[in-house]
Amino acid sequence: MKFASLILLFLTAGMVQSKSFSSAEYQAMQWVGATFLSLLLIGVDDQLQEDVRTFLENDEPKNWDDNAYIYLWAIDVASENTYETGKEMSRKVVEANSRYKYEMEPYDSSFLYEYEYISTSNKDFYCTYSFNDCFPAIYLEIENALKHVKTDYVMYERYQQFLKYEHTSPPYIPKFEAPWPNVSVLTYGHQLNQAVMIEKLFNHEHGEFIRLFEDDTLNLKTMYSKTNSALNKMVLLSLIDKNIELIGHLFQLQHIDAELLNSTKILQLLTATELSGYEMLAFELRVMMKIVQELSENPHYLIKPSDKYLGSAITKKLMPLVFKANLTLNSMYHEYVSKVLEYSKLAPADFYIQYDQLNVNVKYDYIRASVSSYLASFITNDKSIYLRYQGRIHSLNMKIQLLNALVEQGSFEKVIVKAEQGHQPYLNHYDQSPPYFENDKICYSGLFEFNDKFRCMSVLN
Question: Which residues form the signal peptide (predicted)?
């Protein structure tokens, strides 16, 4: 029996116990509910259903990704169903997920959007205890892990290789053979690298520590500048932020001094090139919007293998079918994207003002999201990767600015006094306001509240 029929029976005839899902099937089930609901609410024309059935009848499962089969099944059973029908079918999908959540761990894709964590808890790095109580504890924890887990040594070596990696055109993160995703390889390796650097400080090798620290920070900035991926940039921003936070701790605890820091490039603010992601973001949006437009106007548009933004080969076969149903309003997307691209050329403060006044209601379209997760993420008001990027890059630059001010003034109290007197280098990039104390931190107001980690620095007693 074909896969689509099996799934349909599974949901409608209570055959939950007789169906054994593969890992890929189960992962797809985590997010197919929303897509399926969209299809039911919008409606799918008869011809599209017929085309999908033809696909299902003539292609063997081994030639298709499992998640694509679930999409096709959703189209196969959808018609002009009402909201209540869609809600009921969606409920059954959720129930199916619940039954299996203890049998197989759901796939968690949240790491694509949030990089606030690494393998060991941040509280150990960001604690407010004395240096001798705080950093040795976290180092010993990692050191013990290195002694007992051989793969940790391998991960550290791979991280060192990554730092020396020569980016090709287009750049990409090398795929290491490791049990963690590439993002985790990078973040975990960065943590191990911090432990190695801190060991130098324990051994009073201040010169070697600051050399390694400067190299690490500059390497991260270089990778950040070269990568064409906004998601990769977000990860690298988070790692640079960790370096700035750590060096701020060490300075406040008087384990490094202003003279040592001023002898490096660690305190350098991000350049105009590093702050501007416009060209990269505009390029990705133009490519995706062109493909979307072509598909909408011509369902038989041949998607080139080089169109990597569309993901897997299966999606390239599937999306021309989906677009036959005319499921989206292209003019709305075009209007929003055009405005955001124009605003992105502005200075931070002007961008903030213009975007705040932007009133374009763009629905989250799960079907369009399957063309490219990037497209949906960029053009959705409340979850835009572009806006997160804008907020984080300028907030991180202001955090480096705070570190500079601390080194110059010797204390954050003096920094605030100087800023309140109107000293331009210490003021907020967005609204020219001074920094302020908040919950044992010194902060700037930011473009978005969820960037508080980037716009604040811990204040140690």
Answer: 1-18
Mean pLDDT of 166-180: 36
Do 364 and 376 contact (CB within 8 A), yes or no? Answer: yes
Confirm whether pTM is higher than 0.85.
no
What's the structural domain count of the chain?
A: 4
Question: Contact, 342 vs 285, CB < 8 A?
Answer: no
Number of neighbouring beta carbons within 10 Å of residue 16: 13
At a CB cut-off of 8 Å and minimum separation 6, what does 253 contact?
A: 130, 131, 460
Q: Determine, yes or no, domain membership for 289.
A: yes
Nearest to 181, CA basis, from 100, 108, 284, 105: 108
Query: What tokens were used for 29?
Result: 């089930």
Last residue of a domain, one of 229, 244, 268: 268
pLDDT 10s digits, 250-293:
888 888 899 999 999 999 998 877 777 666 665 555 555 565 55
Q: Which domain holds residue 351?
A: 278-378
- Other CB atoms closer than 10 Å to residue 88's CB: what's the count? 12
- With 60 as the cut, is the pLDDT of residue 406 above it? yes
Longest CA–CA span in the chain (Å) reads 76
How far apart are the C-alpha atoms of 270 and 116, rounded to whole Å?
A: 21
Whether 273 is covered by a domain: the verdict is no
* Domain stop point among 268, 291, 308: 268
